Amino acid sequence: MAAGVPNIRKLESALLVNRAELFRFGTAVLFVIVIMIFAVAQGASGPHGLLLVAAAMIGGYMALNIGANDVANNVGPAVGSHAITLTGAIVIAASFEAGGALIAGGDVVGTIKSGIIDPALIPDATTFIWLMTAALLAAALWLNLATALGAPVSTTHSIVGGVLGAGIAAGGFGIADWAEVGRIVASWVISPVLGGLIAAGFLYIIKRRITYQSDLMAAAERTVPMLIALMAWSFTTYLLLKGLKQLWSVSFLTAALIGLVLAGVAWFVMRRHVASSAPRVPNTKGGVNELFTVPLIFAAALLSFAHGANDVANAVGPLAAINDAVSSGGVASKAHIPIWVMLVGAIGIALGLALFGPKLIRTVGSEITELDRARAFCVALSAAITVIVASQLGLPVSSTHIAVGGVFGVGFLREYLKVSYARMIEEIREHHADADAAAVEAFLARFEAAKVSERQLMLRQMKGQSGGATLRKKERKGLRNINRIELVKRSLLLRIAAAWLITVPATAIVGAMIFFMLRGAMLP
């Protein structure tokens, strides 16, 4: 009897897991059914009406997948650094994603995402409806698969691939704007590299100006207010240019000047806050990290708002286009978004995040590399600045690629710095191999406590001593092998990179296949 107790507990545990999975799946299905009923209530009838109901179902499915996959990039670093709990992050992100979609999502959307195909070459409204339905379903299926595999991918690239594949199936290769497709392909490299370099650059500044100083809090009093001011400028400019562009269209100069005013306010407030907190906060890295907690929460909320305002079009743009084609009987380059369609996107993204988002939040926040609050702050700051720089240069970038690239950037910088430091320690030990052990340890203690500039001076003086040993090339190679440190999970790097590379081709192929199936099923 006693032997059977563990088995019963295992069974109960498995049932609880299955119950949670069934709850998530059932809630998602119920959401999609409600959407279908609502679409029917809008007066959808006839063949086109049935396609509108099907498109509404797929649009809700797409919105759920955007919430499950893409939103993790906004809150993952804050959760991984323990600035906020997973539950708190989901509540904040869901609220601000829905708010961004409903408040600043706009009432008009381009029917052809990113202008990658020419709508004039689509023969009729029926073909257009099949095309957009196929594109939407292909993108949603790919996002679902990527989420299941734990790979954060670009929803914009997913819908672009679906439109491209279905468009070619409908009108041939001449329908595509291959120059625009080439720009999108270039963003696969530009986005993560730019995001990673900027995030790593800010982390290096924090390390040089704060972490590597003897009095950390005194250094933080000088540097942290400037970093928060830069964050206030970048997020204000980012929101005005991207998140609020549907409500208030401003030039870059106007947005930057408004951001500059708020940056001055943030610098003044943060300077007083750090000065008052310094006596109560430990003079350690942990104490410095505490100063980034509130800015990280604000960053997660503002990134979610901007994401909801921008990326809701990925979920409801094709649905709005189909709705417009059904009601007008033609193909237009722009389509108005009815309130019910916008609600599908807003609620779907929030619900998808709450039900299925934790998996990708953990992947971005803690599985790629270890993030503390200073590193997570660098990732969030990089996301805003990279979008601003890229938009001014006319470069197409993905917010997903930027955020994940930023996580990889700070991870690889930490690897490089730790490996470099370990090699220096080994060189010091090898150089003093014949010296007294106590003297070597005393030198190492002074070296560890010294500033970066003082360490470099100590190393030059050590190597300049005639009695010191000189490491041969073979010995240096041995040190590199001994001190190989991996702080970034290589398997995740390869998985995510592979998912990014095949997003557009995969969704294009699936989109073309679905279009042919729809046409074959709908033709008399």
Characteristics of this structure?
524 residues, 19 helices
Summed up, what is this model?
With 524 residues, the protein is mostly helical. 79% of the residues lie in helices and 1% in strands.
Sequence-ordered SSE layout with sheet pairings:
Elements: H1 4-41, H2 46-69, H3 72-80, H4 86-104, E1 108-110, H5 125-149, H6 155-171, H7 178-211, H8 216-243, H9 252-277, H10 285-290, H11 293-328, E2 334-336, H12 339-356, H13 358-367, H14 373-393, H15 399-431, H16 437-449, H17 452-464, H18 473-482, H19 490-522
Helix pairs in contact: 1-2, 1-12, 2-5, 2-11, 2-12, 3-4, 3-13, 3-14, 4-11, 4-12, 5-6, 5-11, 5-19, 6-19, 7-8, 7-14, 7-15, 8-9, 8-11, 8-14, 11-12, 11-14, 14-15
Mean pLDDT reading: 83
- Beta-sheet strand percentage? under 5%
SS-derived structural category: mainly alpha
Largest sheet: 2 strands, antiparallel
Structure, described:
It is elongated, with a radius of gyration of 27 Å. A two-stranded antiparallel sheet has the order 1-2. The chain has helices at residues 4-41, 46-69, 72-80, 86-104, 125-149, 155-171, 178-211, 216-243, 252-277, 285-290, 293-328, 339-356, 358-367, 373-393, 399-431, 437-449, 452-464, 473-482, 490-522; strands at 108-110, 334-336. The termini are far apart. α1 runs antiparallel to α12 and α11 crosses α12. By secondary structure, it is an all-alpha fold. Helices cover 79% and strands 1% of the residues. It has one domain.
